[in-house]
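To the wet lab folks,

You asked to see what we're planning to order before we commit. Fair enough. Below is the target structure as tokens, and below that is the sequence we designed to fit it. If anything looks off to you, flag it before the synthesis order goes out.
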């Protein structure tokens, strides 16, 4: 936790330091060469992740980006289209990886205020392969939706999008970087949010607090193929149990996410009362705040009093709660910001 002299870092839930339990787990991890499938800690993490995410198998990957990109490549053939929400991370923030790693063309759809991929948008966006059109090879959904402010999308919504895709025989990948936040907010098991999709990626390194790593889950045949693609992308790691061990600890931190959500609510309420700020009602651990002043200027003032956030738009900033900021730090953050608006 930041004391009063330290900056309160609300830029992202990726800034957390590993807990003592995680450091101990790393130190004591049983390891082997994971490219030979001989790292018992990685094997355990993959089995546990498959279980939590509700799939037959899972693959440990260094980052969420790699998990998403491996999934896209594994599901598709070169030249196909991928149907994505237009503010989604996989489309907007991964350097156009679809084109570079899988030779795909993206077609975007508008998921509205909450970033929901609706079945009619899937039907409308789907193209059948013919003499002129490449055919849709994949539909992607995101939960929680980062750019829309961490919206937690209900299982029925995901089911509806997946059903529409499956009517066209198109698989669905779920970018669940913060899927455990969605499950905590909706009070459902994680597997309920993945029950109708063909693969799901979940970051261990965000709200769950691991220093490194994400998991990609799917059926056994998909994960076998994904393992080869991970190697192709340079993600075949050796004694990866050293970093997978904290990931195992992280995976059991799901209950704790509700604290982050309560802190996000406190932060939103506190900031919303201040002049020139309008906070969106948070659904999980992300707080979007509309600012009368330009976002960059507002953030500079926040930084001068030791509160960090990121710009999201010309007049919008994002603050993210996580386990290195407790209730007291949130109250301090609000007080500090109140001194500069
Ligand atoms: C952070 C994030 C990713 C990528 O994860 P990295 O580990 O940073 O590569 C993917 N999707 C969403 C929605 C994210 O928020």
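Sequence we intend to order:
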């Amino acid at each position: 936790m930041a004391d009063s002299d330290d900056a309160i870092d609300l830029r992202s839930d990726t800034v957390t330091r590993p807990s003592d339990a995680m450091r101990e787990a790393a130190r004591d991890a049983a390891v082997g060469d994971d490219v030979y499938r001989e790292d018992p800690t990685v094997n355990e993490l993959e089995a546990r992740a498959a279980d939590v995410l509700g799939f037959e198998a899972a693959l440990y990957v260094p980052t969420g980006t790699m998990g998403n990109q491996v999934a896209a490549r594994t599901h598709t053939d070169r030249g196909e289209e991928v149907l994505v929400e237009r503010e989604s991370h996989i489309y907007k923030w991964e350097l156009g990886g679809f084109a570079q790693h899988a030779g795909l063309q993206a077609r975007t759809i508008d998921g509205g205020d909450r970033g929901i991929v609706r079945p009619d948008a899937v039907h409308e966006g789907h193209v059948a392969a013919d003499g002129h059109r490449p055919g849709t090879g994949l539909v992607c959904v995101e939960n929680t939706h980062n750019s829309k402010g961490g919206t937690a999308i209900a299982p029925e919504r995901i089911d509806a999008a997946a059903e529409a895709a499956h009517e066209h025989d198109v698989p669905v990948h779920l970018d669940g970087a913060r899927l455990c936040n969605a499950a905590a907010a909706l009070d459902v098991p994680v597997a309920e949010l993945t029950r109708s999709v063909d693969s799901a990626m979940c970051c261990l390194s965000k709200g769950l607090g691991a220093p490194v790593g994400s998991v990609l889950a799917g059926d056994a045949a998909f994960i076998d193929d994904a393992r080869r693609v991970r190697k192709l992308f340079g993600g075949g790691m050796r004694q990866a149990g050293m970093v997978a061990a904290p990931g195992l600890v992280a995976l059991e931190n799901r209950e704790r996410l509700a604290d982050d959500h309560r802190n996000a609510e406190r932060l939103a309420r506190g900031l919303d009362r201040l002049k020139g700020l309008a906070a969106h009602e948070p659904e999980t651990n992300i707080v979007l705040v509309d600012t009368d002043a330009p976002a960059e200027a507002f953030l500079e003032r926040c930084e001068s009093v030791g509160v960090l956030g990121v710009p999201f738009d010309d007049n919008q900033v994002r603050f993210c709660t996580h386990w290195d900021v407790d209730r007291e730090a949130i109250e301090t953050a609000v007080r500090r910001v109140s001194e500069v608006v």
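Structural context that might help your review: The pocket of pyridoxal-5'-phosphate is lined by residues 63-65, 68, 89, 142, 146, 175, 177, 203, 205, 214 (CB under 6 Å). The CA atoms of residues 166 and 217 lie 18 Å apart.

Thanks,
Computational group
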